[in-house]
Design brief:
- This protein is an alpha/beta fold and about 450 residues long.
- About 35% of the residues lie in helices and about 20% in strands.
- The protein has 16 helices and 15 strands.
- The protein has a 3-stranded mixed β-sheet with strand order 2-1-15. The chain has a 3-stranded mixed β-sheet with strand order 3-4-5. A 3-stranded mixed β-sheet has the order 6-7-8, sandwiched between helices.
- Helix 12 links the parallel strand 13 and strand 14.
- Helix 2 runs antiparallel to helix 15 and helix 15 runs antiparallel to helix 16.
- The radius of gyration is 21 Å and the shape is globular.
- Bound molecules: N~2~-(3-carboxypropanoyl)-L-arginine.
- The site of N~2~-(3-carboxypropanoyl)-L-arginine (SUG) has 22 residues, from loops.
Length: about 450
């Protein structure tokens, strides 16, 4: 019997050290905004406003808390020693780039937090989680421990939820989580097709690969996750991302494609072998026909797709079609804005477009879809999870007040060495775990 299920979205709450450090080679926005002064308070409020608007629409909206940054244990592991203030001072003096890396608020992009397989797809009928090792970038490779603790704390009942450790943290198993994973299905509670998109085959040097920028996800990582989650071959498609797209700044598949239900919205440069991907999905999808909404390069040039983040939109069910939740930049770029008007006039599955302002995150290459982790949950699983992280009007009020009390409204590179910042962050996060009822998840709390 098919159980009723919903797609819950867990957005990353932007952390108090949100800054622009140019840490992600291959991510055009991150590089172009290096050393700009950030506004952590505005960033967090923009994220919360997006969550609130979607919760008001009736979607199940959850929150994943930010990580502790600057992360002193990572600096100690690299040989900096003394009191926390001395560790910061030494790192700032001798290795400011390392200090910037351990200070990044990058855990806000929860599409990279983990890969999640709903219970309808898995062999043991539990929801499976694997935190992404994010091994391609040092600043992100330090996220998975706390991400794993947080997910275990929220989805604690092992009768319903299964947690795996991150894959080995080496380039052969580079894994970027749900940003390279899309699930297509009829109804959420039915078995779906899990589409894993990879950038490179690690154990075959002859296979096609990008030339300029790194491929952050390997086929071998995607296959390992499918095995760990107990997915069946008939529900799986592995597709290679177009290396030319990676070289044009598409560092994750969710910068060029998004799927929901039976609909795949994608650019013609997304996949190395587009026809094969579509026919593999069609052959496996049961209970619905695939709706492929293809955007051609003639309509929207790849460069405009990357600059606008058109595909880093959330695609959400509504009672009479689907809503595309796009970043504001989509209305600033003429070709994209015209395309959206055409899309709405057409008789397709996407029937509404709404604009969200997440500019602070966008300047680091994170649009609406980067900011959320999708977890399909049936009614029993929704009851079984920790409900303190689900956004209500009351929690929204509480969190906006908390942000106003603890966040700075500007942060420059030099500020990362300020020992006061570390104190502010720890005080804020300690209060936050209390507000969300999460218990101890941070190193400074253990
Ligand atoms: O991993 N940017 C992130 C953006 C992640 C976007 N996520 C998805 N597409 N799902 C990254 O490249 C930049 C940080 C800095 O430069 O300060 C950064 O980490």
């Amino acid at each position: 019997m098919v159980k009723h299920a919903v797609e819950a979205n867990f957005d990353g709450l932007v952390g108090p050290t949100h800054n622009y450090a140019g840490l992600s080679w291959g991510n055009v926005a991150s590089k172009s905004n290096v050393n700009a002064v950030s506004n952590p308070r505005e960033a967090a409020l923009q994220g919360l406003a997006k969550m609130k608007r979607l919760a008001d629409h009736g979607y199940v909206q959850g929150i994943l808390p930010p990580h502790e940054r600057p992360h002193i244990p990572s600096l100690r592991a690299l040989g900096f020693s003394g009191t926390d203030a001395q560790v910061l001072e030494q790192a700032a003096k001798s290795s400011p780039s390392i200090l910037a890396a351990v200070s990044s608020a990058s855990s806000m992009w929860t599409a990279n937090a983990a890969t999640v397989s709903p219970s309808a797809d898995t062999a043991d009928h539990r929801v499976h989680f694997t935190p992404a090792n994010l091994s391609a970038k040092y600043h992100r490779s330090i996220e998975h421990t706390v991400t794993g603790r947080t997910l275990k704390s929220i989805f604690a009942d092992d009768g319903y939820f299964a947690h795996h450790p991150a894959l080995p943290s080496v380039s052969h198993f580079g894994d970027e989580g749900a940003a390279n994973h899309t699930r297509l299905c009829g109804r959420y509670g039915e078995p779906g097709v899990e589409l894993f998109v990879y950038g490179q085959v690690a154990f075959n040097e002859q296979a096609p690969a990008p030339q300029k920028y790194p491929a952050r996800q390997t086929l071998e990582a995607s296959q390992a996750i499918a095995r760990l989650h107990g997915l069946k071959n008939q529900n799986l498609v592995f597709a290679q991302q177009n290396p030319a797209a990676i070289d044009a700044g598409v560092f994750h598949n969710d910068v060029i494609a998004v799927g929901n239900g039976n609909t795949l919205f994608y650019h013609d440069m997304a996949f190395l072998n587009e026809e094969q991907v579509l026919s593999d999905i069609r052959a496996r999808l049961t209970g619905a026909e695939l709706e492929a909404v293809r955007v051609s390069s003639a309509e929207v040039a790849l460069e405009d797709a990357v600059a606008s983040y058109l595909f880093n939109s959330q695609l959400l069910n509504t009672p009479d079609g689907m809503l595309l939740a796009v970043p504001g930049e989509c209305r600033d770029i003429a070709s994209v804005s015209q395309y959206l008007d055409k899309l709405l006039a057409a008789d397709g599955p996407i029937t509404a477009v709404e604009v969200f302002d997440v500019k602070q995150s966008m300047r680091n290459g994170g649009g609406p879809a980067c900011l959320r982790l999708r977890v399909v949950l049936n009614d029993d699983e929704l009851q079984a999870m920790h409900r303190g992280v689900i956004l209500t009007d009351k929690l929204y009020e509480r969190l906006t007040t908390w942000v106003a009390a603890h966040y700075r409204d500007q942060l420059a590179r030099e500020d990362l060495a300020d020992p006061m910042l570390l104190d502010e962050v720890r005080k804020a996060l300690d209060e936050l775990t209390g507000i969300l009822g999460l218990g101890s998840i941070y190193d400074f709390q253990i």
